[in-house]
Every structure is written in C-alpha cells, then in structure tokens.
Amino acid sequence: MLVNESTLKLLRSIPGPTQDAQSILSWCEVAGAQPSFGRGIVSMLELFGSIVIENGAQLSDAKIKAKSKIAKYFHDSLAAYLAKHSPLVTDWETKGVSDTPIVPSEVLRSGATLLNVLESKREKVWGYGEPLVQPKVSSCIITTKVHRSTELLYLFHFDTDSNAFQLVGGGEEPDDKDVVATVIREIGEELQNRVVNGKDYTVTPLLSGEPIVVNSRSNSHGALSSYSITLFHMQANTKHLPDFGHSNRWLTLKEILKGRTNGRNGDPIKNDVHKELVEEHKGLLDKLDPSFSQPLRRSLRQKIATKRGSWITVFIGLMAIPAALLIAYPGNTWCLWGGLAGSILFLVLALLSFRA
To answer: What average pLDDT does the structure give for the chain?
Structure first.
C-alpha cells in the first residue's frame, strides 16, 4: 500500500469538536499537502459525514473540524490503518450477500458485504432510482405436476454465488447471438447438459418476448440492479423426466412467494420474477402447461414428509399386533383375531394413502 505521509498528517491533525475550526489551506500547508489533495481528503470525509465545514463557499475561506469525539476517533482510526499498510477490506472477489442482520465485525469481511450495506441504505433512502448495473437476463420457467395432483411445480436452480434458489437462466454473455441463445446456454449449464435443445426440448417466449423489468439488490454482489428479464417456457419432447441433479429443486408457488423452501431451515429463494408475474400478469402462471407430459412421482423421503399422518397410522397398526397377542394370552382367540384384523386394516389404509 502506498501511504502518503501527508495523508496521515491531514487525518491526525483535523481539529476536534471542542477546538476551533482550522482553515483548509493552513491545514494542508502544515501537513505539507497541496490544497487540491487536501480537498480530496475533505470530499471523502464529507461522504462519511464525519466533518463540519465552515464558510465552505470558497476553498480559501473554508474551515474544517471533526463533527464529534467519535468522528475524531474515526479519523485517527483511519490513520492507524494507513500507518500499518492495512486495507479495510482485503477480499473483493468472494460473492454472496444476505439480507439478515450482520454483526459489525462482518461488515468489512468482503467487498460484497460492504457494498450490500451501502446499497441497502441507499435503497431505503432513495429507492431504486439509480441502479449501479442493468443486466440483460434470459430465464426459463420449467414446470411439472406431481402424480395425482393438480398443483404446478417450478424448477429452480441453486446459485452458489447468490446462495439462493433462482429460476433457470442467467445474464447475457458477449458470445450470445440473442436472448434465445442465452437461455439455451444457461439451461445447458445449470441442468448439467442433461437435455439438448431441439432434441429434448423447445423454448417458447412468454409475454410476446417482451422483457419484464425487476429492480432489486443483487444476491451475488449487493449492488442495486435493474434486471431486464426475457422469460421463456420449456416444452419437453419426451415424457420422461431426467434427473436434474442435487442443485436443482421443484418448488411450489407458495414456497416461491414465501421466499424460502419448506423445512425448519429452509433455503432462500429469489422470487422477484414470480412476484412480478403474480402481481402484474395475473393468470399467466396458471395457464402454463407442464413441461413434461409424465407427472413427477414423489420420492420415499417426500412421502414421509408429506404423509406423516399415514406413518402414524402404520405405527399404530404395527403396535396393535403385539398388543393383541398380549391381551389374547393365554387363550382368548376372538380377541386375538380381532386385534390382528384391526391391525391389518390400519396397515392397508395407510399403504393405500401412499399411492398418491
């Protein structure tokens, strides 16, 4: 780190709140700094709001001092970092931010975290008026239904950069010819090339190919962004449902709008698109056909999660068998056969309920 001794002197010599304000020109002269350089330091400290400037119309008349004791300590702390050649933030590569409150020690953990804190405040004060980035995105809505259910499910991909589930799709790349090329490339990347465009599926643009605009803070880098999203719907040419891997999951509309997957420690879901469609394009999602003609069958794990009542019935039926034997002992035949019949009935009813 290149440390200018004048910078250290400038920071350390800013008058405290109980002292008289010092002329910026004399402040720079004592520190051996050019007035233009001192003005740059003043501009940065104005951004933090840690200084008071008096008679600021002209540089020759302006005076400076710390706004409070804490502000004075803040200037001294910045100088201490500079003197030790220690950057406030060293990690400007790691992506991924969270909306959950963070402890003070985490604010400077990475550039993305710091940017997210700054942009969060900017969003609260001024809204989405001036986004830092305006990416063009192509996303594909892939749908299915569970066997013997009318509820539509949507395929979401877990993005490690944003640490959240989001629609299959992504930003435009320089080599993409158009939005269709973008969505086809993203489908191949995020579904691990398990389906091939033209052979296994086709994509149809939604909303006549007109993009929707979604304003939000990026889950990857925290910057306020205005996304121009072109939406497509996948129609598969095969009825068989491929295994899309562990990073992809079928989600209900209720989960998506809630913003978190079901479960005690559910994963976050990027739901801006579905919210926009539900609020501004009512009925569009309801009109979508399943992408695959073959319904999705629940796994044993899913059945356990959704059929807890049936498992309780199985448990009661199994426990009734030894109970019937104990009650019937040493020779109550009618009680024995009655208990066994009841147990079998419990088990049959429970197993029938798993067919869905």
So the answer is: 84
CB–CB of 169/183 below 8 Å?
yes
Is the C-alpha dihedral spanning 292, 298, 302, 306 positive or negative?
A: positive
| Cα gap 199→194, rounded to integer Å | 11
Amino acid, single-letter form, for residue 145? K
- Tokens 């199985």 locate to 314
Q: What are phi and psi of 139, to 5 degrees?
A: -130, 150
Is 76 a residue whose pLDDT tops 80? yes
* Measured distance CA(356)–CA(349) in Å, rounded: 13
Per mean pLDDT, which range of 94-103, 223-232, 233-242 is the poorest? 94-103
Would you state the structure tokens that stand for residue 121, as one six-digit string?
Answer: 């405040």
Closest CA to 142 of 278, 283, 296, 344: 296
Using the Cα atoms of residue 66, residue 67, residue 73 and residue 76 in order, give the sign of their dihedral.
Answer: negative
Nearest Cα residue to 131 out of 51, 213, 59, 35: 213
Please give the single-letter amino acid code of residue 142.
I
Any bridge partners for residue 322, and if so which?
none
Question: How far is 141 from 288, CA to CA, in rounded Å?
Answer: 9
Distance from C-alpha of 170 to C-alpha of 98, rounded to nearest angstrom:
20
Higher per-residue pLDDT: 101 or 268: 268
Strand partners, 137: 171, 229
Instruction: Give residue 42's Cα distance to chain centre.
Output: 37
Per-residue DSSP letters for 195-226? S-BTTTEEEEESGGGPPEEEEEE-TTT--EEE
- The residues with which 260 forms a beta bridge, in sequence order, are 268
Residue 178 one-letter amino acid: D
Q: Is the pLDDT of residue 26 over 90?
A: yes
pLDDT tens per residue across span 284-342: 998 899 998 887 766 544 444 444 455 555 566 556 556 655 555 555 666 656 666 76
Asked if pLDDT for residue 98 goes beyond 90, the answer is no
C-alpha to C-alpha distance for 108 and 337, rounded to whole angstroms = 72
3-state secondary structure of 80: helix
Q: Work out whether strand 224-236 and strand 136-141 pair parallel, antiparallel, or are unpaired.
A: parallel
Q: Which two tokens stand for residue 300?
A: 């044993």
